[in-house]
Amino acid sequence: MNSSNAASLIQVSINSEGIALIKLNRPEKRNALSQQLIDALVSTVTRVDCDEKVRVIILTGSNPVGPFSAGADLSELRHHTTSSAHAIQYLAQVSSSLSAARKPILASVAGFALGGGFELALACDIIFCSPTAKFGLPELSVGTIPGAGGTQRLTRLVGRQRAMWLMLSGEVVSGQVMGEWGVARCVEGDVLKETMRVAKKIASWSGPVVQLAKEAVRNAEETHLDAGLKLERGLYYSSFSLSDSKEGMTAFIEKRNPIFKDQ
């Protein structure tokens, strides 16, 4: 695949409200994660996360009612060895680029998100999906296991029993079930439209405060309660040094909309 084709694997646009819409664009392969698509996605996420104009990121498929991602490209994956996977840290960068982004990342899933595709969504901050969307971790059926956070992030979200059942059975479950399990926000109607609505609301808040909130919640998964509470208090107190904090409270008292300046 040449460089121009590689670039077309990811479509990105940024609107006037600072919402970056990133689309996986490999429809002929159901957005399967080839190494070129992975590299392009990592590069794009890193770039838009550093873009001062961007306030929120949405990740979705290029077809608004089609697949999010079918997961790893098995035609490539079957050629990997243990040493080659270690050498390139296969899937590690794409998972970490999403989970470590400073800006909020919302996944919008209308079709299916399987294997590595599901793991991409799990690495995002919020998943929005249709009731008929399909989620699963079918890696055991092709002789491997989830390798981009599926065993870890899903277990933290739904508990050992549900995660173990989903992985060992290879069953595919609906977006409605993901909503009931608390993994995703299940949306009737246009999923991307609802994702965009929430993104616009997030984009209206103070950028630094949004990042403080994201940091606090993200660290909750990795720390004991006492340490997490201490971290939360520190971040909470640090928000008081922001002029946006004073503006938000003053606007509330004065019964007007706040004018945040990201300061």
From TrEMBL:
SUPFAM superfamilies on file: ClpP/crotonase
Keywords carried by this UniProt record: Lyase
Name of this chain's protein: Enoyl-CoA hydratase
Source species taxonomy: Eukaryota, Fungi, Dikarya, Ascomycota, Pezizomycotina
CDD domains: crotonase-like (cd06558)
Any matching Pfam family: ECH_1
Single GO cellular component term: mitochondrion
Homology family: Belongs to the enoyl-CoA hydratase/isomerase family.
Species of origin: Oidiodendron maius (strain Zn)
Signal peptide extent: none
The keyword Repeat appears for this protein: no
InterPro entries on file: ClpP/crotonase-like_dom_sf (IPR029045), Enoyl-CoA_hyd/isom_CS (IPR018376), Enoyl-CoA_hydra/iso (IPR001753), Enoyl-CoA_hydra_C (IPR014748)
Keyword Lyase applies: yes
One of the record's GO molecular function terms: hydro-lyase activity
One GO term of the biological process aspect: fatty acid beta-oxidation
